[in-house]
Specification:
Strand content: 25-35%
Bound molecules: magnesium ion
Low-confidence stretches: none
Shape: globular
Number of helices: 5
Distance between the termini: 30 Å
Radius of gyration: 17 Å
Order of helices and strands: HHEEEEEHHEEEHEEEEEEE
CATH architecture: Alpha-Beta Complex
CATH class: Alpha Beta
Helix content: 25-40%
CATH superfamily: Creatinase/methionine aminopeptidase superfamily
Length: about 260
């Protein structure tokens, strides 16, 4: 069941979204050679504390029974890591890319967003990966204004990534979001079988975390033995961008932007 949100509830989600955006803006300043992802995690924890925001990632249960919960406030996934990387003290190097995903809850409502950042100068191929992934997110939000169902949007996302010679990672998808970070429906970045059978109507009040993950060489992924970090099978780079987006009678509204 998809829980539609009222304008008042969407306004509350915007508060959480603004703090997530503020946290990622702080992370952006730390994305320089020699910095480390643990520092990014500490900066985000401080911002969440300052706003009385509950971090949503810390303590998140592992999908494999008996394996450790997620230990940090951000997922920090470097280079071949796609998602769910654990922050650490390894210095970032010129030419690396780091995907940072974070979420928080304020007054009972959630926000969730991600960005992939270049560390110094990156190779043109890597810059193109970042551009294509961020453009895929942008085009999906724009398309929500005129598409009636999510499969129409997902098809555009998939086609754009393919046209650029890259791959949509299919193992992980976006999600509904509200009082819980992960609500129904699942929001794939491609036209999945499930979507064909049971499409999502883009009606006012639906709030989705849209999060395309794109890889340079393959859509196939593997999980490392820390039981969290997901990497590309070919160990080539991947990127991830995410916004929490509400459908309103006036069209799609991004909730995880820094300024209105
Ligand atoms: Mg998400």
């Amino acid at each position: 069941m998809i829980k539609l949100k009222s304008p008042r509830e969407i306004a509350l989600m915007r508060e959480a979204g603004r703090v997530v955006a503020k946290a990622l803006d702080q992370v952006r300043r730390l994305a320089v050679p020699g910095a480390c992802t643990a520092e990014m995690d500490e900066a985000v924890a401080a911002i969440f504390r300052e706003h009385d925001a509950i971090p949503l990632f810390r303590g998140y249960p592992n999908s494999t029974k008996g394996k450790p919960p997620f230990p940090a406030n951000i997922c920090a996934s470097v280079n071949e890591a796609v998602v769910h990387g654990i922050p650490n003290r390894r210095p970032l190097k010129e030419g690396d890319v780091v995907s940072v995903d974070t979420g928080c809850k304020i007054n009972g409502w959630c926000g969730d967003a991600a960005v992939t950042l270049a560390i110094g100068e990156v190779r043109p191929e890597i810059q193109k990966l970042l551009d294509v992934t961020s453009q895929t997110l942008d085009l999906s939000i724009r398309a929500m204004a005129r598409c009636r169902t999510w499969s129409e949007v997902a098809s555009l996302m998939e086609k754009y990534v393919k046209s650029q010679g890259m791959y949509v990672v299919e193992k992980f998808v976006g999600h509904g979001i509200g009082q819980d970070m992960h609500e129904e429906p699942q929001v794939p970045n491609f036209v999945s079988k499930a979507l064909r059978k049971n499409d999502i109507r883009l009606e006012p009040g639906i709030v989705l975390a849209i999060e395309p993950m794109v890889a340079l060489g393959t859509k196939n992924v593997a999980t490392l033995d820390d039981h969290w970090t997901v990497v590309t099978k070919d160990r080539r780079a991947s990127a991830h961008f995410e916004h929490t987006v509400a459908m309103t009678p006036e069209g799609p509204r991004v909730l995880t932007f820094l300024d209105d």
